[in-house]
Amino acid sequence: MERTCINNKKSEAILLAAFFSISLILWNLPDYHMASAQNNSPILIHGGGRGTIVCVDGSTMQSDISFIISNPKYQSNLKGNWSLNDFSDPFQSGSVVTGGPIYTGSANSLHYNVTGETDNLKEKIRLCNPALFAPISIVGVCGRNVIIDVGLKTNELFDVVNPFYGDVVCQR
After folding, report:
1. Separation of alpha carbons 22 and 113, rounded Å
2. Are 95 and 49 in a shared domain?
3. 82-92: per-residue pLDDT in tens?
4. Which of 32, 46, 104, 129 makes an SS bond possible with 68, Cβ 3.0 to 4.6 Å?
5. Radius of gyration (Cα) for the chain, nearest Å?
6. What's the CA gap between 19 and 136, in Å, rounded?
7. Which domain holds residue 88?
8. Per-residue 3-state assignment (H helix, E strand, C coil) for 41-85
9. Which string of b and e fits 73-93 if b means at least 16 CB within 10 Å?
10. Structure pTM?
11. What is the number of structural domains in the chain?
12. Does residue 16 share a domain with residue 96?
């Protein structure tokens, strides 16, 4: 009789452990599917900020950047646009220096790392002397008062990366 009671308690414990394990799996299943669905959802990112570009010759140029990134379901379809505005001339404040398409990179609801080009591939970005060139890289995180790293090319074959400070909104 005692042996039957012990076997019943073992069976109950095993059954309870199995029930608990299955409950945990089923409980976490909606979170997995929700996260998976969010990773495949389209995303829209728009942002902008102000920064100082330090030129190769040591001069500086205050500028604004604005950009928009659209990332449909799959990363290979990422598209967008960017523009740099020059605020160094008080008589022509806000004149657009250059802009162009964003054509590659990655973006999600937390951060972005994209590359763009000028509308005309031979166009120079005349913020500095010597001029800067695209491709432009724009890298950062989503949020308010965040750093937006902007990278440009020079004739000396190295990148000029400057921090801009602004707001970037990322939404699904």
Report:
1. 40
2. yes
3. 988 876 555 55
4. 46
5. 26
6. 56
7. 43-171
8. CCEEEEEEEEEEEECCCCCEEEEEEEEEEEECCCHHHCEEEEEEE
9. eeeeebebebbbbbeeeeeee
10. 0.70
11. 2
12. no
